[in-house]
């Protein structure tokens, strides 16, 4: 957000010039909300450790992509888009200052809160000094058998240039003295990434009372054996984050896969963006690192050990269910339920009877999406399957089904988005496996990422072709479907079937299509379709008809959409904005956004669904789909929203929003100054219910009610 608001207005729009919150600082506010979950003593302690790890992993990606991109544009003199009217260097300085404050708070949360709470629960993270001789003997044996052989200390001297330091790896900087010459030398030692970050001290300990030592701590206390004949003076931990964004000029390359593979190789050697050092590092070592990495003071983050708290992901695998969230068991959607275990699910019959709206992970992905694709692969009446794949798991049953379908002689088209960030290599591997099995693999349109979530099954029924479609808000990934909140619509509507047929022809061929019935498709019509509907709500409000807008997504930064919402608010339209992450709109600002409420919900599940609801004078229109309100989604990606038509689906979405905006449910609320306030208790000091628990309870109770009938 801006430090000092401006009071002048934008001449063209008539709206205040400071009406947008800076997107990067808004993202840091989001990561602060993740940190607040770790700081919350009412959160189970292993879940607190998990949120600390998520915060660290999030921040790594933020630096690798967003900060790296901003810095690259500043260095190369390219224009830096900013919607807050600040010089790019000022924006970068604010980002670095804010990120550093959060990292210090993050480190203090671990050392001062979570680590002691873990120890009290019987999971201790210990230093070498806390161990007795028997413990040290066990660990020394482990070190000599499992760690020592793979270590590679690298000297730095005139004969040995400063080595390449890979991004995100932990390293030890080591100073040693040669007793013969009294000369001090420098060496670097990479902490092996294939060895568990937290080493169990004694495997004979019970799981209810277990100790771990950080790997770098264990190695640091065995350095004498790595430098025989030398005197180890001191050692320090450091870590570098590099620019790992991938940029491809597709219109200048003939082979996308080859170009992408070259770019992935280049990613490993991207320029340093952030240097994290332990707070005990000496000036001589720091000067050497700053000089060799060619970075400035602003890029150095001095932190208390341990560095890289994403390593805490490993501790969350400790078998202590009493220290984790109480499990939610996904239910099977009632339309996909069979009467007895021996009955075979027929997804086509279920969808043909009525459209099905599933909500993951509350409702099972395995018994809905996965079952649908698996049945399509083996059904003799299915002639063709078309599917988009943006991210999927390494052992994906979805991909296995597509391969099985192709091997059975069906027409199978897979649109694999090989440019999905940080999944590029996995997607290239899957694309080649699919091609080898006879699947028609395409990579979408030049210059556009294909981000929409679609399955299209064509089935012969009684001499005619029937279309069965799934349009979702999330990826076809069975693993993330258990932790990502998403909606998906199954339909046999001929109207939707025609729309999806047209769209796949656009994606795999040379068609240019803008005429859809129940779909809104980016980049050609989605932005205009949303803007038209926002203005329509304003017209309804001015005419005294029912109006209202409810939006849910991951991020909102698009200025045209935000300005349209401001104008609708000034016309009196009630507007609810539910964003998990970045949110550049300002809420409840007098004269600007009086009727706009903004909420954020974080918890055990990652809120990932995108929903667009318009009251429309009493004839409510609701869309779900893949698009967030960002420039890239609206202008540089193939995105799809589908309109929901079933009345109970509209009511279910409305109830979902009611939960999120209720004062009786825990959430974060944006205040008029752009800050976020978390409400976790009511006026009596009693804890408020968690939205995700409420939704799970809603699904479970609905299942019980149907069973009772």
Automatic annotation (TrEMBL):
Keyword Kinase part of the UniProt annotation: yes
InterPro entries for this protein: PLipase_D/transphosphatidylase, PP_kinase, PP_kinase_C_1, PP_kinase_middle, PP_kinase_middle_dom_sf, PPK_C_dom2, PPK_N_dom, PPK_N_dom_sf
One Pfam match: PP_kinase_C
GO-annotated molecular function: ATP binding; metal ion binding; polyphosphate kinase activity
Cofactor: Mg(2+)
One example of a Gene Ontology biological process annotation: polyphosphate biosynthetic process
Cellular compartments per GO CC: polyphosphate kinase complex
Enzyme Commission code: 2.7.4.1
Keyword hit for Nucleotide-binding: yes
Binding site for ATP: 58, 484, 580, 608
Enzyme class, broadest EC rank: transferase
Catalytic residue list: 451
Binding site for Mg(2+): 391, 421
Top-rank lineage group of the source organism: Bacteria
Catalysis: reaction(s): [phosphate](n) + ATP = [phosphate](n+1) + ADP
Keywords tagged on the record: ATP-binding, Kinase, Magnesium, Metal-binding, Nucleotide-binding, Phosphoprotein, Transferase
PTM field: An intermediate of this reaction is the autophosphorylated ppk in which a phosphate is covalently linked to a histidine residue through a N-P bond.
Start and end residues of each PLD phosphodiesterase domain: 603-633
Entries under HAMAP family matching the protein: Polyphosphate_kinase
Family (UniProt): Belongs to the polyphosphate kinase 1 (PPK1) family.
Biological role: Catalyzes the reversible transfer of the terminal phosphate of ATP to form a long-chain polyphosphate (polyP).
Name of the protein this chain belongs to: Polyphosphate kinase
Organism encoding this protein: Leucobacter chromiiresistens
Underlying gene: ppk
């Amino acid at each position: 957000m801006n430090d000092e608001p401006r009071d002048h207005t934008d001449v063209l729009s008539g709206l205040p010039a400071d009406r947008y919150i800076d997107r990067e600082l808004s993202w840091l506010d989001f990561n602060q909300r993740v940190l607040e979950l770790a700081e919350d003593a009412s959160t189970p302690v292993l879940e607190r450790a998990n949120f600390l790890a998520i915060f660290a992993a999030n921040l790594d990606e933020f630096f690798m992509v967003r900060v790296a991109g901003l810095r690259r544009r500043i260095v190369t003199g390219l224009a830096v888009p900013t919607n807050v009217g600040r010089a790019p260097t000022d924006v970068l300085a604010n980002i670095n200052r804010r990120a550093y404050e959060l990292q210090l708070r993050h480190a203090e949360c671990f050392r001062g809160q979570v680590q002691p709470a873990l120890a009290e629960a019987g999971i201790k993270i210990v230093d070498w000094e806390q161990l007795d001789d028997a413990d040290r003997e066990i660990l020394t044996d482990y070190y000599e058998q499992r760690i020592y052989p793979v270590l590679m200390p690298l000297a730095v001297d005139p004969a040995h240039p400063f080595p390449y330091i890979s991004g995100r790896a932990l390293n030890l900087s080591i100073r040693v003295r040669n007793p013969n010459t009294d000369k001090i030398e420098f060496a670097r030692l990479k902490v092996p990434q294939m060895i568990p970050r937290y080493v169990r001290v004694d495997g004979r300990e019970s799981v209810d009372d277990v100790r771990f030592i950080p790997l770098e701590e264990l190695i640091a206390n065995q350095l004498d054996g790595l430098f025989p004949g030398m005197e180890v003076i001191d050692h320090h931990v450091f870590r570098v984050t590099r620019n790992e964004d991938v940029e491809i000029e597709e219109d200048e390359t003939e082979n996308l896969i080859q170009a992408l593979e070259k770019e992935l190789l280049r990613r490993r050697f991207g320029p340093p963006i952030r240097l994290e050092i332990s707070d005990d590092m000496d000036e001589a070592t720091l000067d050497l690192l700053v000089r060799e990495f060619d970075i400035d003071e602003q890029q150095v983050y001095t932190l208390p050990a341990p560095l890289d708290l994403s390593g805490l992901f490993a501790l969350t695998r400790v078998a202590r269910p009493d220290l984790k969230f109480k499990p939610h068991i996904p239910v099977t959607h009632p339309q996909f339920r069979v009467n007895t275990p021996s009955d075979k699910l027929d997804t086509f019959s279920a969808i043909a009877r009525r459209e099905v709206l599933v909500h993951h992970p509350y409702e099972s992905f395995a018994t809905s999406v996965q079952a649908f694709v698996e049945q399509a692969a083996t059904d003799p009446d299915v002639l063709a399957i078309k599917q988009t794949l943006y991210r999927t798991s390494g052992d994906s049953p979805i991909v296995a089904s597509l391969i099985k379908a192709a091997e059975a002689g069906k027409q199978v088209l897979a649109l694999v988005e090989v440019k999905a960030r940080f999944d590029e290599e996995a997607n290239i591997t899957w694309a080649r496996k699919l091609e080898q099995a006879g699947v028609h693999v395409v990579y979408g349109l030049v210059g556009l990422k294909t981000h929409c979530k679609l399955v299209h099954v064509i089935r012969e029924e009684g001499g005619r072709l029937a279309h069965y479609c799934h349009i979702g808000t999330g990826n076809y990934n069975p693993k993330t479907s258990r932790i990502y909140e998403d909606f998906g619509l199954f339909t046999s509507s001929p109207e939707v079937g025609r729309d999806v047929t047209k769209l796949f022809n656009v994606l795999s061929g040379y068609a240019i299509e803008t005429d859809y019935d129940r779909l809104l498709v980016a980049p050609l019509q989605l932005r205009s379709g949303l803007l038209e509907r926002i203005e329509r709500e304003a017209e309804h409000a001015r005419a005294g008809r029912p109006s209202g807008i409810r939006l849910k997504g991951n991020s909102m930064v698009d200025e045209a959409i935000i300005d349209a919402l401001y104008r609708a608010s000034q016309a009196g339209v009630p507007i609810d904005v539910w964003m998990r992450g970045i949110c550049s709109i300002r809420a409840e600002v007098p004269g600007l956004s009086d009727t706009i409420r903004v909420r954020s919900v974080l918890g055990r599940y990652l809120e990932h669904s995108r929903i667009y609801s318009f009251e429309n004078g009493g004839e409510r229109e609701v869309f779900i789909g893949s698009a967030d309100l960002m420039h890239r989604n609206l202008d540089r990606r193939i995105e799809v929203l589908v309109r929901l038509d079933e009345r109970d689906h509209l009511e279910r979405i409305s109830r979902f929003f009611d939960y999120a905006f209720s004062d009786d449910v825990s959430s974060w609320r944006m205040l008029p100054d752009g800050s976020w306030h978390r409400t976790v208790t009511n006026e009596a000091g009693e804890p408020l219910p968690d939205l995700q628990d409420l939704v799970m309870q809603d699904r479970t109770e609905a299942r019980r009610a149907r069973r009772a009938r």
